[in-house]
Amino acid sequence: MTARGKFITFEGLDGSGKSTQVEKLARSLRAHGLAVTVTREPGGTSTGEKIREVLLHSATAGLSPLTEMALMFASRAQHIHEIILPALAEGRIVLCDRFTDSTEAYQGGGRKLGSKAVLQLHEILCGNLRPDLTILLDNEVAFSVERARRRNRKHRAGRSEKEKDENRFEQESRVFFGRVRHAYLAIAAREPQRVHVINARGTPGETHAVIMELVRKKLKI
Question: Which residues are bridge partners to 94 per DSSP?
Fold first, then answer.
């Protein structure tokens, strides 16, 4: 019988460097001969990617916070069923760019919906699936927001009509992102065994070295 794989999630503000660190960790783990599945939320499946387009497109700025949260969980439920659980059953290491902590931080904190509804929906729709390890990349709100906006301006400048607009959240205020960061840190304080806060103010290489050491220790790789 194949041993269950490990589920590692990456969290943080937009512009915190999550995508870069997911890819760096995937390369390092594969170099050690480990089977790795890299995925993301919202998205990860064909259904989820369609939902992602609705959630992140700047034209859908009028979504209500409750609709936003419901769509996040619709994408996540399909993602768990189609990608995450099958990969874990095969003994793979699943690296996911965002998971339910993002919903608790962005919709629970940023949109002021609170944690209770998020955690209840997670239990009902996601079978209360918990990551083995969550890496929270923490940086100054102003730095992360400006980095995300700069990245999106660059993408917009070179984007063809077929490329996707994913700018809706970057249009939010720094006060909004301050609430998101506060919610993230509250989750880390509540679940210190699972959620590890990593200072993301260094270079990508420095941050990766810290993450790799943490993964080795926590997952005994």
Answer: 7, 37
Judge whether 187 lies within some domain.
yes
Instruction: Give me the domain span that covers residue 82.
Output: 6-219
Question: Do strands 93-97 and 36-40 pair parallel, antiparallel, or not at all (unpaired)?
Answer: parallel
What is the four-CA torsion angle of 212, 213, 214, 215, rounded to 10 degrees?
50
Spatial CB neighbours of 25, under 8 Å, sequence gap ≥ 6: 8, 95, 208, 211, 212, 215
Name the pTM for this structure. Answer: 0.91
- Residue 84 sits in a domain whose CATH number is 3.40.50.300
The two beta strands, 133-138 and 36-40, are unpaired
DSSP characters for 45-89?
A: SHHHHHHHHHHH-GGGTT--HHHHHHHHHHHHHHHIIIIIHHHHH
Closest by CA to 6, choosing from 36, 45, 30, 31, is 36
Q: Which tokens go with 8?
A: 């590692």
pLDDT tens sequence across 80-132: 999 999 999 999 999 999 999 999 999 999 999 999 999 999 999 999 999 99
